[in-house]
Amino acid sequence: MKKMQRALFALAMTCSAAALADQPVIGLITKTDTNPFFVKMKQGAQQAADAGGAKLLTAAGRYDGDNATQVTAIENMVGAGAKAILITPGDTKAIVPSIKKARDAGVLVIALDTPTEPKDATDALFATDNYKAGELIGAYAKSAMAGKPAKIATLDLAPGISVGVLRHDGFLKGYGIKAGDPAIVCSQDTRGDQAKGQTAMENCLQKNPDINVVYTINEPAAAGAYRALQAAGKEKGVLLVSIDGGCEGVRNVKAGQIAATSQQYPLKMASLGVQAGLEYAKTGKKPSGYTDTGVTLITDKPESGVSSKDTTFGLNECWGSK
Prior knowledge:
Blueprint: H1 2-22, E1 25-30, H2 36-52, E2 55-60, H3 67-79, E3 84-87, H4 96-104, E4 108-112, E5 124-127, H5 130-145, E6 152-156, H6 162-175, E7 184-189, H7 194-207, E8 213-216, H8 219-231, E9 239-244, H9 247-254, E10 260-263, H10 266-283, E11 289-292, E12 296-298, H11 311-317
Parallel strand pairs: 1-2, 1-3, 3-4, 4-5, 5-11, 6-7, 6-8, 8-9, 9-10
Antiparallel strand pairs: 10-12
Helix pairs in contact: 2-10, 5-6, 7-8, 9-11
């Protein structure tokens, strides 16, 4: 009887080891592991991996733009047998050689949220249409100003980062102006950081105290801008618009601090990415090109001709602490 039990146990262990050996490995590398956007992305990836029977490896930069840590993560994941790697590149150009090495080794590489430069350095991109996200808040701001002359401050990301460029350019298109338009009275970089957003807004107010429209790259920068406006006693006379759709940002829309924000969906990006990775592991079929994961304008003060949903919808779909 004991011999039979030992034999059954050994068979079970062998089957278990075989199952693990057949389990596809998928990697997720985010810009950081502290931003709620990337926390939600990791959650979506884990849910999809669990549902598909995949092992998920995760890594993140120590800060936004930390290319060295992302390079090491790619190398480690390739060494661990990853069939697919999903990445939000911190440095969209510097990461390209490492992505090429992974692809040359037969690994599917999908960019999430942020395209590489060039875009075709990865097999596919699953992301928000950042140009459209900017265009939505630009069109909203233009409508809300109702013909009143605008003095615009743009609180941007940083030079050369594609997400920041697309959102900024989309905002200008939505507002109906071009780069260099005299309506733009101040532009400052914030790296999407709240403290830097506050400093940038303070600098802009010193340059032109009559600013009445503020575009921000994301909601942390918007929160910083609002603090600066509030400290200057100008928060009620300035139209503040942003992009992200995190729970904190949507609450700030509901509170009237931000007039409108464009909401994006990191959980969906990662879920679709993992599903594509599983398909590749099973069949060898690769995704290609760009998959739009959606964007929605969130505001409680809708404008005619600009499609939007209210903060109740936004809070149901947001990411971060609810």
